[in-house]
Write a structure and sequence with these properties.
By secondary structure, the protein is of the alpha/beta class. It contains 13 helices and eleven strands. The termini are far apart.
């Protein structure tokens, strides 16, 4: 039975992650869910009985958010993250990792310990967000792994995200946009312009040009390519805006007797809107470009986001995303082929 590791050590809400892992084990009976962290905490949060495909591995240490990632990985061998990665590396049956820990530590550990797929310059963190079109998601790559990327890195992010969206969402020709300060071809800094040229030259990609941040969630695009700094600011701004809108909407609907009556009439529709705007429902971000499946979920993950993150690992495994990326990295640019 294939195994998925869940690192709860450094997350803000470990009990919720454990309960989400239990729910995932109940639903995905063909996979074993291995939760790594404080065994006493895990046992209490999991309750009794637990599914037979739910396992606990004790870890006595935690890599904190203020730890230096590389140093902490070396100095804390019994941390939940390091133990989870060692379990991931130690068995062919172990297919993936979900972690709610420090982003820097998770990405550093995955890169150094799991290792990059041959040909990958830098792994990319790819997250998804809802759009104005019901049922359609947009993938942002990079959303926080690489805060200072070269045009070559960005162009490769597009290739990996393209394979990811094709495999998981069944989009035949994902529309790819480059995040910029204007939609015109000439807009952006020198790095953006150089990236634009590389994406335009790659005939295997359906690159449609620059995209302004306000158009990211229109549903017109399947992938937004960005460096990790701007991408992280983008998604956190969107999350903050969604929270503000839902909070103010609730306040307005509860402000008077008349508005409360109106709220009752639209209660079902409001529930659907809340679900659509809740980032927990989409799970964590996939870390593409390393040799095993890694999903970095929110530090404040609840039961919903933990289960969704585990589902994301399973979907990537069942759609052979690692093989697709390995094959994609073997494809040489036309100019290199011609020169050989």
């Amino acid at each position: 039975m294939k195994k998925i590791m869940v690192d709860i050590g450094a997350c803000d809400t470990p009990e919720k992650m454990v309960r989400g892992a239990v729910e995932a084990a109940k639903e995905f009976k063909d996979y074993t869910i291995v939760v790594v962290g404080n065994s006493e905490l895990i046992g209490k949060a999991a309750g009794n009985p637990v599914p037979t495909n739910f396992e606990i591995v004790h870890a006595s240490e935690i890599i904190e958010n203020n730890d230096t990632p590389t140093r902490a990985i070396r100095q804390k061998p019994d941390s939940s993250l390091v133990k989870a990665i060692n379990l991931l590396n130690g068995s062919e049956d172990a297919i993936g990792l979900v972690s709610g820990g420090s982003t820097g530590a998770v990405l550093t550990g995955a890169t150094l310990m799991v290792g990059r797929i041959k040909g990958v310059h830098r792994p990319v963190l790819a997250c998804v967000m809802p759009t104005a079109i019901d049922g359609k998601l947009v993938c942002v790559a990079d959303c926080g792994a690489n805060v200072d990327s070269t045009p070559e890195f960005l162009a490769q992010f597009a290739v990996m995200a393209n394979l990811y969206v094709k495999a998981l969402f069944g989009v035949a020709e994902p529309k790819i946009g480059l995040l910029s300060v204007g939609s015109e071809d000439h807009k952006g800094d020198e790095r953006s312009k150089a990236t634009f040229a590389l994406l335009k030259e790659n005939t295997s990609l359906n690159f449609v040009g620059n995209v302004e941040a306000r158009d990211v969630m229109t549903g017109e695009y399947d992938i937004i390519v960005s460096d990790g700094f701007a991408g992280n600011v983008l998604i956190k701004s969107m999350e903050g805006t969604a929270k503000l809108i839902m909070k103010e909407l609730k306040k307005a609907l509860m402000s008077s007797f008349t508005s409360k009556m109106g709220a009752l009439l639209v209660k079902g529709s409001l529930g659907q809107l809340k679900t659509k705007m809740d980032y927990h429902a989409y799970g964590g971000a996939a870390f593409l470009g390393v040799k095993k499946l890694v999903v970095k979920t929110h530090g404040s993950s609840n039961e919903v986001s933990t289960k969704a993150s585990i589902r994301n690992v399973i979907r990537m495994y069942e759609h052979n995303i690692l093989s697709d990326i390995k094959s994609g990295m073997d494809v040489k640019p036309a100019e290199q082929v011609e020169s050989e």
